[in-house]
What we know:
Layout: H1 2-14, H2 20-25, H3 39-51
Amino acid sequence: MGRSIHKLETTAHQKNIRSIGNLLKNGYEMHDTAFIDDQWHNEYIMEKILDNR
């Protein structure tokens, strides 16, 4: 799970999002990162988060 969160943080950085904390405040649940294990999933989740802002 820690690895998935690291990858999400990396993707957030690439998308110019300040921190994973901002993602969590926007309704992204920490436990949902458990299934994210490659870049495609990261991109998909990030797009989903950005669409919901």
